[in-house]
UniProtKB/TrEMBL annotation, chain A:
This is Multiple sugar transport system permease protein. The chain crosses the membrane at residues 59-87, 121-143, 155-175, 202-225, 255-276, 312-332. It is found in: Cell membrane. The lineage of its organism: Bacteria, Bacillati, Actinomycetota, Actinomycetes, Pseudonocardiales. PANTHER family: ABC TRANSPORTER PERMEASE PROTEIN, ABC TRANSPORTER PERMEASE PROTEIN YESP-RELATED. Its main location: membrane.
From TrEMBL, chain B:
This is Multiple sugar transport system permease protein. InterPro entries: MetI-like, MetI-like_sf. Belongs to the binding-protein-dependent transport system permease family. It is a multi-pass membrane protein. It is found in: Cell membrane. The lineage of its organism: Bacteria, Bacillati, Actinomycetota, Actinomycetes, Pseudonocardiales. The keyword Manganese does not apply.
Length: 347, 296
């Protein structure tokens, strides 16, 4: 500390105050103070206590205010507003005009809604289990590799920090039917790879492949969960004569089921909203007809309706349909989790 | 399968059993070799991207990893052809504002949930967690309408200002950390006559640096890599952030454009490199943050 500079003086000053404060507050005062916070009836009268409580609640309101304002203005408000907008015709320029259930009727008859929803569900159904299986397999390897585990965890996580747009650009080249690395690698093992980016049948599998590349977050979660499984459980299982598979099935899986469930829910919600990579690859100024059909994911369609065609009423109806789908899927998953998830010590 | 067998042998460090140990080390070696192969497969695309960005234009589509000559000029050209420096600075400014805003506001809210008693606390915290599950696409249009009504679309403000109101993920993360702080230190602060705000500033924040760094680092990454918001709010190229700009570069110079993939890849590398650097600089915070949220 340099005495003389304002910062140095301020620092000294505060340190001095702290010391003085501690001296002033003798043993008895400190005990009283702590007692007050533990709500000891010996010290304060009920009236006094409720006054402190009220003061604390008022302070809490202050601390919470950013979130409370944000919740009303940017979450609950927009959620309800989008419900209302879904019953209007709105182009962001003129006032919304009430059209009743027109948007929903249109939505039910729009083949692209079904197409984009189908594409998204197809992707989700493949991406979520495959990425979980890949992450679990590699997390088990990380544990087996012992002191090398953290090193490989770091290396395997790196793709996950790549910006989604960069991932899209990169995979346009990697998945290129003639020159891409993926097909070159397949050729090495004698497989003639498909036209990933132009054959309608292979566009979605290509996107699934892309999505598996950045599985790092799921990997880190599983690796952490596996390390928390107590060794004595394996010991006990072995004494009972359980083989490796049985120990995995009856010890490892139940003990990490919380992490599995968490990633299932979070990855499903994220997959149903897949946007940046597909938009980068197949939309914008230079999109192909195959990409525009097969790469049309639900949120891409929603985005285009809202911000390219300025049909924001219709897009709001799309948004609410998505909201209901995600809510339903999540509720089903939570319900199922009650049967499969094992919560150690907090049932 | 070997891996599974390995895992299951976690807790028997003490028992000296020679055949077991040999099998264990064999399993360990197999795991390391398998991981090394996977590590190569997963990092190869990034390596390829970095090297391809240094290739002569005609060579990008050739299979070789190594460029025949290193064309460092690609990186000069990309700065001349594209306002990349502006985009880098824009992205950095927006990401920094987003990260600082979300960390401070979420810490305030997390402080209330961790240390203050008030009616309906658990209910409200449940509501915070519930908003984490809310799809962003559902609130996108009305949120746009709000910024539009304020005359702020077409500026960078909507990209970060929403973060001033805290965010469920960070509130949860910081609260979990706050709850691990030793209560005695807070009591000592109270004894010293600190009010709630004083406790927050002089006791809780200084002790929570790791959690605050996690929050900053996560939001830097989230903001740096986001495409949707810049796509919705920004029309003018001089305001673009990198993902938004990169998409334009791809459309203009890549597919359907002039086929200058060397430039597209150079821009791609420049957008990715800061994130890789951030990750290596703050690795343990990334890992800890992810493990905290996944383990609940």
């Amino acid at each position: 500390m340099t005495p003389g500079t304002p910062a140095g003086r301020a620092g000294q000053h505060r340190a001095g105050q702290d010391r003085a404060g501690r001296d002033r507050a003798g043993q008895g005062r400190a005990r009283q103070d702590r007692a007050r916070h533990r709500r000891s009836p010996a010290w304060s009268s009920p009236a006094r206590r409720s006054a402190t409580r009220r003061a604390e609640a008022r302070a809490a309101l202050g601390f919470l205010s950013p979130w409370l304002v944000g919740f009303v203005v940017f979450t609950a408000g927009p959620l309800l507003a989008s419900l209302w907008l879904s019953f209007t015709s709105y182009d962001a320029i003129s006032e919304p005009r009430w059209v009743g259930a027109d948007n929903y009727r249109e939505l039910a008859a729009d083949p692209l809604v079904l197409k984009s929803l189908g594409n998204t569900v197809y992707y989700t159904v493949l991406h979520v289990p495959l990425s979980m299986a890949l992450a679990l397999g590699l997390a088990l390897l990380l544990v087996a590799a012992r002191r090398w585990g953290p090193f490989f965890r770091t290396v395997l996580y790196v793709p996950a920090v790549t910006p989604p747009v960069a991932v899209g650009v990169l995979f346009l080249l990697l998945l290129n039917g003639q020159t891409g690395l993926v097909n070159r690698a397949l050729r090495l093992v004698g497989i003639d790879g498909p036209q990933w980016t132009s054959d309608p049948a292979w566009i979605k599998p290509g996107i699934v492949l892309l999505s598996l590349w950045s599985f790092g977050t799921t990997l880190v979660i599983y690796y952490a969960a596996l390390q928390e499984v107590p060794g004595h459980l394996y010991e006990a299982a072995r004494l009972d004569g359980a083989n490796a598979w049985q120990r995995f099935r009856h010890v490892t899986l139940p003990m990490i089921s919380g992490a599995l469930f968490f990633t299932l829910v979070v990855n499903t919600i994220a997959s149903l909203q897949m946007f940046a990579e597909v938009y980068t690859m197949y939309f914008g100024t230079a999109h192909t007809s195959a990409g525009a059909e097969e790469g049309l994911f639900y949120v891409v369609y929603l985005f285009r309706q809202a911000f390219e065609f300025l049909d924001m009423g219709y897009a709001s109806a799309l948004a609410w349909l998505l909201f209901l789908v995600i809510l339903l899927v999540t509720l089903v998953q939570v319900r199922l989790s009650r049967r499969f998830v094992h919560y150690e010590g907090r049932r | 399968m070997g891996a599974v067998a390995e895992v299951t042998r976690g807790g028997e460090r003490a028992r000296p059993a020679p055949p077991e140990r040999r099998r264990r080390s064999v399993g360990g070696v197999v795991a390391v070799v398998a991981l090394a192969v996977c590590a190569v497969v997963f990092t190869y695309p990034l390596l390829w991207m970095a090297l391809a960005s240094l290739k002569p234009r005609s060579e990008v589509f050739e299979g070789s990893l190594w460029p025949s000559t290193f064309v460092w000029r690609n990186y000069v050209t990309v700065f001349q052809e594209i306002p990349l420096l502006t985009w880098l600075l824009n992205t950095f400014a927006v990401a920094a504002a987003a990260a600082v805003a979300v960390t401070i506001s979420s810490a305030l809210v997390a402080f209330a949930f961790a240390f203050l008693r008030f009616p309906g606390r658990d209910l409200l915290f449940g509501l915070v967690l519930a908003t984490m599950m809310l799809p962003a696409a559902v609130t996108l249009i009305p949120t746009y309408a709000i910024w539009d009504a304020l005359g702020l679309t077409g500026t960078q403000i909507p990209l970060w200002a929403g973060n001033l109101f805290g965010s469920a993920f960070y509130i949860f993360l910081l609260r979990q950390f706050f709850l691990t702080l030793p209560p005695d230190l807070l009591d000592a602060g109270r004894v010293d006559g600190l009010g709630h705000l004083g406790l927050f500033r002089h006791v809780v924040l200084p002790l929570s640096r790791p959690a605050l760094v996690i929050s900053v680092v996560f939001e830097l990454k989230a903001s740096w890599t986001d495409l949707l918001k810049p796509l919705v709010y920004l029309q003018e190229p001089h305001l673009f952030t990198l993902p938004r700009g990169l998409k334009v570069v791809l459309d203009r110079f890549g597919q359907g454009g002039e086929m200058r993939w060397d430039l597209v890849l150079a821009a791609n590398v420049l957008a990715t490199l800061p994130m890789v650097a951030l990750f290596f600089a703050a690795q343990r915070y990334f890992v800890r943050g992810i493990a905290t949220t996944g383990g609940r």
